[in-house]
Amino acid sequence: MAKIERMKVLVVDDQAEIVKLVAELAKARGLEVESFSDPDKALAAVKKDAKVYTLAILDYDLGRRKKTGLALLEELRKVAPELRAVMLSGQGSIQLAVAAMKAGASAWIEKNFDLSDKLEANIARAAELSGLLDELSATKESNRELSARVDFYQEEFYRKYRMVGQSPIIKDLLQQVERLAPIPRPVLLRGERGTGKELVAAALHQASPRKNGPFVTLNCAALSEGLLECELFGQEENAFNNAPFRRGRFEMAHKGTLFLDEIGNMPYDFQQKILRVLEYQSFERVGGGQTIKVDVRVVAATNADLDKEMKRGRFREDLYDRLAFESIRLPALRERREDVPQLAAHFLRLLTGEVPGIEPERFEPDAEKRLAAHDWPGNIRELKFFVERVAYRTRRSTIRAQDLPPLERAGAEAAPEAGTGDFRQRVAEFKRKLIQDALTRSGQDRERAAKLLKLSPQEFADMADAMGLDS
């Protein structure tokens, strides 16, 4: 079995910041990184010694006159068919995602605010699949190292999924989690977007007898029915053209917890298959006939009104009954305003711990009051991104009220303000705000700003020039 120091992550991307991010995440998992901007050189390195690589992270767009990441992946599968691969893209495309999955990619990740978390999950999974923990358990010395590593993972889990707040509504929520955690039945989490449903799912897992087992997540809204079936149940080799063997999320979550986010967006016909797995804890991989038995606790989440969806015939009543052994409603941030200062301080501490050079250490009371007074339609996620943007722009140890930008622009998902003027004027103003925000977030780099808005560089430049916005 390979030694830890020989396990490498292959990165093929021409963006230095992406390579740096992967290097930091891989180092935390005891993995090295070898990066290339030239796909042909990356292919040559794998041909030379494929066994040293445990994961390949490939950018789809590698620049003009260079083969795409998808073409590189197809060539890598020929020389290293067991190599796990993740495809990155600056722009979302269902067609490209399907093509990447068919070519053997284990994940398709857009370069957005969730990039770090998604990369971290894939790197951690690759490290586990490489057998690092099994190797450490071989001797007494290895057992001590394994114990330390498990402690590390549990600390990381707690840091990432820690629930912050002292309001009565949050205390009641935590008590409900504590009561439900030991009961091996499905739980349905309901609440607005950004309210922390994954955090509650993780808390249920961590407080349960399954806490030493895997915690596996999947966003059901992000995949078509065909891809969803492969992701959840896995696929046999050659289940379709050149398809590699892969384990599904249910199999990966054996003896642990599977978190199914946005289950209200799951295709209606596919819901029957999920119901069957919940009832019998068994399934078959795509293209296979062998029945796989598992022991998985499912926690599902949605921001959809399932009562209305059932009346409209878009969500199965029997699946709802099976999922909702108990239902937990997550409060919106406007319902727990007293927690906002503590949450803001928490996100600030996380950022300063991750990014060198961030100067602010705390919010002044007047700034905390302004934050608590805002409704935060995007809830905790919106507050987190707002705090991070304010923190990197502020050049002092404290953040004052006057350092906060207008709160109606707090999140990229915030709705346009009512304003004045006719419809066209208000739409034009909202477009201007989107362009300005993208330029700010990209450090005035128009090409990166265009990718954030999923526009071509020329489309972005034309709009920015028409608005008189200089970069």
Record field, number of beta strands: 16
CATH-assigned fold name of the largest domain:
Rossmann fold
| Shape field | globular
Content-based structural category: alpha/beta
The CATH homology group name of the largest domain: P-loop containing nucleotide triphosphate hydrolases
Mean pLDDT: 82
* Rg: 23 Å
- Total count of helical runs of at least 4 residues: 20
- Report low-confidence residues grouped into runs of 5 or more: 1-6, 132-161, 409-420
Please tell me the CATH architecture of the largest domain by its name: 3-Layer(aba) Sandwich
Q: Can you summarize the main beta sheet?
A: 5 strands, parallel
So what's the oligomer here? single chain
Overview of this protein structure:
47% of the residues lie in helices and 14% in strands. It is globular and about 65 Å long. The strands form five sheets. Strands 2-1-3-4-5 form a five-stranded parallel β-sheet, with helices on both faces. The chain has helices spanning 16-28, 39-48, 69-79, 94-103, 115-129, 132-136, 140-161, 168-180, 197-206, 225-233, 249-252, 268-280, 306-311, 317-323, 340-354, 365-373, 379-393, 423-441, 446-452, 457-466, and strands at residues 8-12, 32-36, 53-59, 84-89, 107-110, 187-190, 215-219, 234-235, 246-247, 256-261, 282-284, 291-293, 296-302, 326-329, 362-363, 398-399.
